[in-house]
Amino acid sequence: MTNSVDITNNVSTSNTLMSGNSSEDQSVLGKDDFLKILVTQLSNQDPSNPLQDQDFIGQMANFSSLEQMTNLNDSFDKFANLQMSQYSSAIGKEITWTPEGGDSSSSGVVTGVATQDGSYYYLVGNQKVPMENVTEIDQVSSDSNQ
Question: Which residue has the higher pLDDT, 133 or 12?
Fold first, then answer.
């Protein structure tokens, strides 16, 4: 009688439960994981055949590169959020735009801002208006003196 256990599912499930991350996040190595691997490698290296200087320098260069890419990605996220907040200043204002392939212009009051596939849109009623099609932004005139 043979008993077998699939440890791959057990390990990934326990890692997910402990860290609170989804299994999707577990498939990508981050800078902390890279540093843990490097420390483990250094602490478990063979004393008669230690890690060569050029190998160590290469791994540190990879780590530095990974950290810079992570910082750059964080900067892009902050920039995207800044852009969104700048575009949101148009909410409540009237915009005029030229529809794709059209000669006439349309106008309406901006009710929101959306992003899709890296492009930003003003929401006017049920329409998504690409920001590059906007030709004018005006304050909404208040006709309270009638």
Answer: 133
pLDDT at 10: 41
Rounded alpha-carbon distances, angstroms, from residue 105 to 48, 90, 127: 77, 18, 14
- Helix/strand/coil for 104: coil
Strand 119-124 versus strand 112-116 pairing type: antiparallel
State the Cα–Cα distance between residues 146 and 31, nearest whole angstrom. Answer: 64
pLDDT at 15 over 50: no
Residue partners of 13: CB distance under 8 A and separation at least 6: none
Q: How far apart are CA 49 and CA 14, in angstroms?
A: 35
pTM reported for the whole predicted model: 0.47
Largest Cα–Cα distance of the chain, in whole Å?
Answer: 93
